[in-house]
Design brief:
With 440 residues, the protein is an alpha/beta fold. The protein folds into two domains: 135 residues, Rossmann fold; 287 residues, L-fucose Isomerase, Chain A, domain 3 (Alpha-Beta Barrel). It contains 14 helices and 18 strands. The longest helix has 20 residues.
């Protein structure tokens, strides 16, 4: 989960019940302290005049906030939210309190009307990165969306090699990506991943870990040692270059250059919350970074590789790179060598059952889109090589397949296990970023 800093202020007008609004505000601020991985730049006094709004904006800028929650404690001047938005230039939550019970007089807060005023003003002024919410505590989906946006703005992604041979659909416009999202991408050679000096002691510890995680009877001792050494070397490479994520051209050259493919290494390091995308998939890496920032458990790039239209399920599969912590705990978790002339050395297991969200940031025809769906993985026997899950979606598998193929969504989708779908958070994130949403 990504740590963020958010500004908070309460707009008001003294012709309404400001004292009651401030009591609600005080409770809302106390609730903010329960939000994990968040810091708050708080304006304690009500923002009533234009000079108050300018002072609040100056504090938010000085504190380096990633976003601002502008609360309509009561109805207020229309200038206030405009001044803060103009000066801070960050995503805005327009937040209204629930209306208080009537006490025989006029409406006490008129908070929702103030939020409506702000939304209309901002929309007509050309702003689109604002969200509206009504309630006495902050909209945590909006906070998650801020986490996603901030993760991309600060992201340093490496590409080792290039995209996989023939995967033209994974190409991206790197300068456009930096301009729209702030993602900085650097290119490296494949050898940079496995050429780092690592100690024999660290390699032996890794080797013991690999043998504890996987059944290794199908691979040689030399291959196990190579997996362990590659884990340590890649970890050092990521740390030395301060990379938040790495996309790897994992075939066809890697096995020839190093002696084994990197799949098993990726399974191990991904289980340690490293973001690694196979086949040079930069936007896949971006998707997993955004998902991890919002608190999803170790994301996994999967292929929609098999569909059963009659029984309405699919397999989300890849050659053997899923984080090993996602194993179902029932099947034998193995290292296998079923491709690259016996040098594949991939993880092999059935993934655990449970709910998941499925998403991808994907560019095409001059637009960046966000594909989103969700579903649940079911138990199944281990029947083939690689890492995979039998899944059913919240739509028919035919609808999902028709959607991704008719819109040209790339064939890698980020599968993210979760007890709480963040569909709304991703929708807010898409609006913040100006992404088109694709949904079956």
């Amino acid at each position: 989960m990504k740590k963020v800093r958010i500004g908070v202020c309460c707009l008001a007008r003294y012709t309404y019940d400001v004292a009651a609004a401030l009591e609600i505000y005080k409770k809302a601020l106390a609730d903010l302290e329960t939000v994990p991985e968040a810091e708050w730049s708080v304006i304690s006094d009500p923002v009533v005049e234009k000079t108050d709004a300018s002072a609040a904006a100056a504090k938010f800028k000085a504190d380096g906030v990633d976003a601002v929650a502008v609360i309509s404690g009561t109805f207020h001047l229309g200038h206030l939210a405009l001044i803060i938005t103009r000066e801070v230039k960050k995503p805005v939550l327009l937040w209204a309190f629930n209306e208080l019970p009537y006490d025989g007089g006029k409406i006490r807060l008129n908070s929702v009307c103030g939020m409506n005023l702000n939304a209309s003003n901002l929309y007509k002024a050309g702003f689109s990165d604002f969200e509206c919410a009504v309630g006495d505590v902050i909209d945590r989906d909006w906070v998650d969306a801020v986490r996603m946006k901030t993760a991309l703005e600060r992201a340093h992604i490496g590409v080792a090699g290039y995209r996989a041979d023939g995967f033209f659909n994974l190409d991206i416009d790197e300068p456009a990506g930096f301009g729209s999202a702030g993602v900085l991408i650097d290119h490296y050679e494949l050898s940079d991943m496995f050429s780092r000096e690592v100690s024999d002691e660290d390699v032996k510890k890794r080797e013991a870990q690999v043998r504890s995680l996987f059944g290794c009877s199908g691979v040689t001792d030399v291959q196990v040692e190579k997996v362990a050494r590659l884990c340590e070397s890649t970890k050092r490479f990521l740390d030395d270059n301060k990379l938040d994520a790495l996309a790897v051209r994992c075939w066809p050259e890697f096995a020839n250059s190093y002696g084994i493919a990197p799949c098993a290494m990726m399974s191990v390091l991904q289980s340690e919350s490293r973001i690694l995308a196979c086949e040079g998939d930069i936007e896949g890496a971006e998707t997993m970074l955004a998902a991890a920032a919002a608190g999803y458990e170790t994301p996994f790039l999967a292929d929609l590789s098999q569909v059963n239209l009659d029984e309405d399920y699919a397999l989300l599969w890849h050659c053997g790179v899923a984080p090993v912590n996602l194993c179902d705990g029932v099947c034998d978790c193995t290292l296998d060598t079923y491709f690259a002339g016996g040098r594949g050395v991939t993880a092999g297991f059935v993934m655990k059952s449970g709910g998941f969200d499925l998403m991808r940031i994907d560019s095409a025809r001059g637009k960046t889109r966000l594909f989103f769906s969700k579903g649940a993985a079911e138990p199944m026997e281990k029947q083939l090589s690689g890492t995979y899950a039998k899944v059913r979606f919240d739509c028919s598998v035919r609808e999902l397949l028709d959607t991704v193929t008719s819109t040209g969504v790339a064939h890698h989708l980020a599968m993210c296990y979760t007890d709480r779908s963040r569909e709304r958070a991703f929708a807010i994130f898409a609006r913040m970023m100006g992404y088109e949403v694709i949904r079956p």
